[in-house]
From TrEMBL:
NCBIfam families from the UniProt entry: PRK05581.1-4, rpe
Organism of derivation: Hymenobacter metallilatus
PANTHER family: RIBULOSE-5-PHOSPHATE-3-EPIMERASE
Name of the featured protein: Ribulose-phosphate 3-epimerase
Function summary: Catalyzes the reversible epimerization of D-ribulose 5-phosphate to D-xylulose 5-phosphate.
Matches recorded under HAMAP family: RPE
Binding positions (substrate): 8, 66, 142-145, 175-177, 197-198
Family, per entry: Belongs to the ribulose-phosphate 3-epimerase family.
Pathway it works in: Carbohydrate degradation
This enzyme's EC code(s): 5.1.3.1
Cofactor note: Binds 1 divalent metal cation per subunit.
Catalysed reaction equations from the record: D-ribulose 5-phosphate = D-xylulose 5-phosphate
């Protein structure tokens, strides 16, 4: 199966978000990835609820909200009301993770949990069947444009095994440093969704770059189905 593609608006032109959202509407993007940073959980501040509302007005794809914030439980319904389809919180930010995941699902959103690079996938053993999404950070969260951490490939394979073993249908999403150089290896390891920020938006034509990702990853999936 070819993976879902989720361009990260963190790398888009913030002065022109209507244009960026509208051009992605006619692209190969499956989701729009929306990174929220609070300057506390991560050492950076990005954007929040009013910006999500504005993006949602022009978006055609579901919006995949990644909350890199402390105490996310206080903001879940506000993000849902602003247009979030998926809400992912960090394992490291939630002492009562099971309750937060239940709250996200009760709001009618897909519930995701993100893991920082140092957090082993084994921490999800008891909650995996309750998740719709696991987001593996393949860079340290807080900034776009960082280099992919190679150990992510081993981690994705371990997560895939854990999900299969416990009968979880959660999707595996990878976030950080994703390019066409590592995308196929990530899919081969078990990734279902790829977030790409700078690779897409630093290219001369982001829509064409997404089309190229879609084309290469689909061709490879078809070859594997044929075998
Ligand atoms: O969550 C993030 C940073 O915390 C970004 O979504 C991620 O880094 C994607 O950007 P890039 O593809 O430029 O690495």
């Amino acid at each position: 199966m070819a993976p879902l593609l989720a361009p990260s608006l963190l790398a888009a032109d913030f002065g022109n978000l209507q244009f960026e959202t509208e051009r992605l509407a006619a692209s190969a993007a499956d989701w729009l990835h929306f990174d929220v940073m609070d300057g506390r959980f991560v050492p950076n501040i990005s954007f929040g609820i009013p910006v999500l509302q504005a993006v949602h007005r022009h978006a055609k794809q579901p919006i995949d909200v990644h909350l890199m914030i402390e105490e996310p439980q206080h903001y879940l319904s506000a993000f849902r009301d602003a247009g979030a389809a998926n809400i992912t919180v960090h394992y490291e930010a939630c002492p009562h993770l099971h309750r937060v995941v239940q709250q996200i699902r009760q709001l009618g959103c897909r519930a995701g949990v993100a893991l920082n690079p140092h957090t082993p996938v084994s921490v999800l053993e008891d909650i995996a069947p309750d998740l719709d999404l696991v987001l593996i950070m393949s860079v340290n969260p807080g900034f776009g444009g960082q280099a992919f951490i190679p150990n992510t490939l081993r981690k994705v394979a371990a997560l895939k095994e854990l999900l299969v073993d416990c009968g979880s249908e959660a999707l595996i999403e990878i976030d950080g440093g994703v390019t066409l150089d590592n995308a196929q290896a990530l899919v081969d390891a078990g990734a279902d969704a790829l977030v790409a920020g700078s690779f897409v938006f630093s290219s001369p034509d982001p829509v064409a770059t997404l089309a190229q990702m879609r084309q290469q990853l689909t061709a490879s999936a078809e070859q594997q189905d044929f075998r």
